[in-house]
Amino acid sequence: MFKYPLSLENHWLHHAIWPLTELQQQWLFGTGSLTAKLKANTNQFSVEVLSEKHMMLTESDALMCGLAVQNVLVREVLLMGNGQAQVYAQSWIPTDLLDNDLSLAALGDRPLGEYLFQHADLIRNTIEVAQFSVSHCLLQLVKSLNLPAACCYGRRSVFSLAEHKIMVCEIFLPNSVLYR
């Protein structure tokens, strides 16, 4: 089994240094809701919660993401479509935000994107991308889902909502619509 949260340590970049199709660029650098895009491009969208753990951010994690060292809920989910895992997502949600917003604290199997993109004051900071090789620890998850072993692209960004910052990382799994 896995030790959650999964490490997403990688060389995150503000632009891709590997060739991407136009479709891949649209999916990776699109600033709208990934949830809405997946719902529009797949059937039977759902969220499968893998893990939710309260943790203190390390100084290096906080600095890397422009967040304060604080307690966060690390939420890990699979975004499902067409009966298959499309995206592995990991979010760092400040616990003080959870304490003040019961609808966020009780997300359950609802997508975080639906919560975030309903707020008019939401600001998405720069999107960073990374390529996850077949030797990355994420491959264990890919194998457990009976997906083909392949490099995966991911993106991450920090969302600002009032005085709170939420980190969201999204890894497009091998059967994702990103690769079609």
From TrEMBL:
This is Probable chorismate pyruvate-lyase. Pathway: Cofactor biosynthesis; ubiquinone biosynthesis. Keywords: Cytoplasm, Lyase, Pyruvate, Ubiquinone biosynthesis. The gene is ubiC. The keyword Amino-acid biosynthesis does not apply. Its EC number is 4.1.3.40. SUPFAM superfamilies: Chorismate lyase-like. One of its GO terms (molecular function) is chorismate lyase activity. One of its GO terms (biological process) is ubiquinone biosynthetic process. Removes the pyruvyl group from chorismate, with concomitant aromatization of the ring, to provide 4-hydroxybenzoate (4HB) for the ubiquinone pathway. InterPro entries: Chorismate--pyruvate_lyase, Chorismate_lyase_/UTRA_dom_sf. It comes from Pseudoalteromonas tunicata D2. It is found in: Cytoplasm. Belongs to the UbiC family. It catalyses: chorismate = 4-hydroxybenzoate + pyruvate. Signal peptide: none annotated. HAMAP family: UbiC. GO terms for cellular component: cytosol. It is an enzyme of class 4 (lyase). The lineage of its organism: Bacteria, Pseudomonadati, Pseudomonadota, Gammaproteobacteria, Alteromonadales. Substrate binds at R75, L112, E170.
